[in-house]
Every structure is written in structure tokens, then in C-alpha cells.
Amino acid sequence: MEKVKLEIVGLSYSQTQSGAYALVLAETGGKRSLPIIIGGFEAQAIAIELEKMTPTRPLTHDLFKSFAQSFQIEVVEVIIYNLVEGVFYAKLICSKDEKFSEIDARTSDAIALGVRFKCPIYTYENILASAGILLDENAELQQETPSSEVSTTTSEKPATTYNVEELEQQLLDAIENEDYELASRLRDEINKRSES
Questions:
Q1: Do 63 and 157 share a domain, yes or no?
Q2: What b-and-e string marks burial along 125-153, b requiring 16 or more CB atoms within 10 Å of the CB?
Q3: What whole-number distance in Å separates Cα of residue 111 and Cα of residue 114?
Q4: Residues 54, 122 within the same domain
Q5: Which residues pair with residue 83 across a beta bridge?
């Protein structure tokens, strides 16, 4: 079967499932995308690595990476290999001493590990053909909660009432308290202001 390389192009609140996130993977050099609904913990784990944030204590996926590397095991690729009744199936392709092993994993965990090992993510053409959607070049992923409604750890005031320095302090506090969802939203608000 023909493999298709994917890249992470978006991670946003799911508009269809409360407490869930939509991870959007797009084919490299193509116009199709593969939206996958994942849990909040896995979304945080992926976002933290993509944004190069450093948690005060290692997350489960960081622990797995340290453990694997301690035994000279590398994750060389992630393959989303099946789709059954709306559920994606994935596997990690691992190598040690030029021997390869396949490990079955939830897709969200496989991708969280894949970004830590900086390995490529693939799917098969038949999965992309059945579950993929065409990307609209002019559309952007929108979060369900606008950044202007971000609440803080100290109050329920919207983020727009704080200056950048206050937001940066709240970001540090959120990371210290391991509230990575809030940290991600605060970071997005800070980035939005710096682009203006």
C-alpha cells in the first residue's frame, strides 16, 4: 500500500465533542487533511512539544522517550494504518540495533511520541481517501473559545484586560502549576498581540 506523509497543521478545541480537541494532519504537498478527535491530555502533550515548552516534571510521553533512549530504542516513524467505525489505529515503528519492531498505540499517543522523536507521520492512501477532507486554502482553524475569552489562574477576567507582561507572568505560573491547556491559550494570546 502507498504511504502518504502527514504534517501537523492544527490543534484546536473540538466543536463537536466537549472536552476534546481536533488534531488536523495534512498530506505533505497535497490539499487533503485528516482530522482526528483526541483527548485533552494528549492534546496538551502534543502542544507542549510543538511549542517547545518545558514542564516542571516529565509528562508520560517524555518519560517514555527517556526510557526508550536509555535502551537505545528510537521511534523512526508513526503509521496511521486503519480506520474502523470512526476510530483511527496507529503503530510506532521502532528500531534498535538495526532491528525494527511495530508497537500498536492509540493514534494520539503515537503522534505525541512521534513529535518527541521528531519522526515522520504516515497514513495509507486508502485511509486518506476515505476519511480525508479537502483543505480550503483561505480557511483557518478557529478555536471554539476565542482568545479574548481566556480566563486566568487568578481570576475569570478575559485575557484582553491584561498587558503582555502580566500575561507572560501568568504563562510562567501556568507552566509551574502544570496547567498546560491554560499555558497554551495564554501563549496564543501573547503571540497574537506580538503579531499585531
A1: no
A2: eebbeebbeebeeeeeeebeeebeebebe
A3: 5
A4: yes
A5: 88
